[in-house]
Design brief:
14 helices, 389 residues, nine-stranded mixed β-sheet
Length: 389
Amino acid sequence: MKKHIGLTLIILLGIAVFAAGCIGGETKTVTVTSKETVTNTRTVTIKEKAPSQVIVIRTTGATFPMYQIQKWIEDYQNTHPNVKIEYEGGGSGHGQEAFLKGLTDIGRTDPPVKEATWKKFLETGDQPLQFPEIVGAVVVVYNVPGVKELKLSREVLAKIFLGEIEYWDDPAIKKLNPNENLPHEKIIVIHRSDSSGTTAIFTTYLSLISKEWAEKVGAGKVVDWPVDKMGRGMGGKGNSGVVAMLKQTKYSIAYTELSYAINENLKVAALENKAGKYVKPTEETIKAAVANVKAYIPDPTQGYKEDLKQLLDAPGENSYPIVAFTHILVWQNKGGKHYSPEKAKAIKDFLRWILTEGQKEEHLAPGYVGLPPEVAKIGLKAVEMIQEG
C-alpha cells in the first residue's frame, strides 16, 4: 500500500511541475544531477521569464562606409540591447537591388540612385527615401617597395588608369617625384570587379579631370577598364578585396576608401587638386572640400535628382579632390508595406541617432567626416516621414 501511495505522489508531483512550466512565460529544460551519483539524473521543465523582444534590422550595400557603419552599430547596440543590426556589404549596386526586392530594411549606396531605378522602387507601391549619412574620401593607394611618397598630377593619374603610362619610372612620374627611387617595373592597376559606388565616384572624378577618360571610358558603378585588355588590370570584389589584392601584388596601384587605407596602413598618394596643389586626404582637407562647395540635396522623395559630381574636384588650395557623400535608402512604409510597426519605430530611432549623436566625433570612425548640419536636417526630415502603422 505504501508503495502505491509513494508512486502516486511521484506522478502527481511530475504533473504539477509540468503544468507550472507550461502556464505562461518561456519554458526551459534543464538536467539536474543527484549528489549521490552522477548516473542518477532527471529532467524537469521550469518556468523562466521571457526575454524582451529583439528587433532585427538588416542593412545592405555600399562598402565605402563599412567601417563607419560597423562603428555606429557597435556604439548604438551598446545602449539599445533590444535592437540587433545586421550589415552586409556587397557594393552599392547590390544594396540597391536588395532594397528593391525587399531583402534588406535599409539600403546603402554611395552614388545617388538613378531615375530608372527610382521608378522601379516606386512600382512597389511604396515611396523610397534617400539622403546622405556621412562624408568620405576615395584615395589612390600603391604598393611599390622603396617608394615612400608619391605625387600624381591630374594628367598622370588618368593616364595610369587608361594604361598609357606603363612603367613606374616613366618620365612623367619621375618629374613629379625626383627624390624617389622609382623602379622599371610595369604598373599593375587594381580596380573593383563588382557593381561599386566607390568605382562610380572614382570614374566620375576621372571624367571631370580627363576629357580622354570621359570619351573612352566614362563613369559608372561598372566600367570597361582599358588596362584589363593590356594584361595589367586586376579586379577585386569589394573595397576589402581590392585592398587584399594590392597588398599581395608588388608594383600595383588601386583606389579605395580612406578608412581602408588607414586600417590597413597603406601608402596613399598625394593628388593634384583643382588649385594645382598636391594634397593628401585628411580630416582637414576633406572638410575644406565640403566647405568650398554648395551641396544641393533634393527632397528625400526625389533622391535621383542629386548630382554625384557636386563635392568632387572642389575649389580651394587645401581641398582634397575626391570627396563624396554616401547615402541611406529607406522606405516611407505606406500602409505598413515593408516594415511592421515595431520595426519601423526601431528603424526611425536608429536613423535619428545616426544623424545626430552618430555625427559627433566620438562616434566617427577614422577616415570619415560628419555631415554639414543643413544636410543632416534633410535626413531627419526623411526619418519623420517613415510611417509606423
